[in-house]
Amino acid sequence: MPRLADLAELVRAPAALSVPGDVVAGAAAAGTLGRRTPALAAASVLLYWAGMAANDWADRRLDAVERPERPIPSGRVAPGAALGLAAGLTAAGVALAAAAGGRRAVTVAVPLAAAVWGYDLAAKSTAAGPAVMAACRGLDVLLGATGGRALRAVPAAVTVAAHTWTVTALSRREVTGADAALPLRTLAGTALVAAGAAARPRPERAALPALLAGWYAARYGAAQARAAADPRAGRVRAAVGAGITGLPALQGALTARAGAGLLGLAVAAAAPLGGRLARRISPT
Hints:
With 284 residues, this protein is an all-alpha fold. The radius of gyration is 18 Å and the shape is globular.
């Protein structure tokens, strides 16, 4: 039996702090914040962990060469156990979404689970990889919006999806290193994402979203700037980690933009916590 610590490393447990904010931002935008939101956020975390386990199962042969320290190639977690865990977490995530949000939640949770597995098993190494992963995060935001005015959550979903595209594009070069142009392009994308998160139609409530969006841009943008100056693998991997652990600041900005300022601050607070935990278990 694998140790709990090995399973936590397999699913990148601390990186799950970047997940509940998707659902919260979607719920805030759609006007559906309520008792079911925490359960939908928990379902989202289960699907995220499922994706991480499935990712390592699919990459087990490649990791044996490039990352032999990972749980599967190091022998700490058997491939079958990883696949079984991924399947079980997927089923649990969809079931919890159904219990919390009914049929409307299932209509988002099932495509989300399919997109997660599609990325891991087929799309990851193709040109479509970043777009498929971006779709996963966009659907995650819309999961929180089920049961409400879901169209109002589309801008938040697109914003989070755009951020995810930048992180995924960088992640494809975190082992080999990148051309300096790549982090410069993703940095430009981050600037646009932050600007979009800061904008709101009621200027009297603009201060907090702008502050959190600026924090997100500074945190993630600085790591990308360092990768552009030195695009070797270590710097690129650090930028990917900053994009994962810094996402709650963006989610907090989107939540605050929807009018839930205190909740936005609470969501953003996961960013520094995720950064500290990432020093123990890599989020990438």
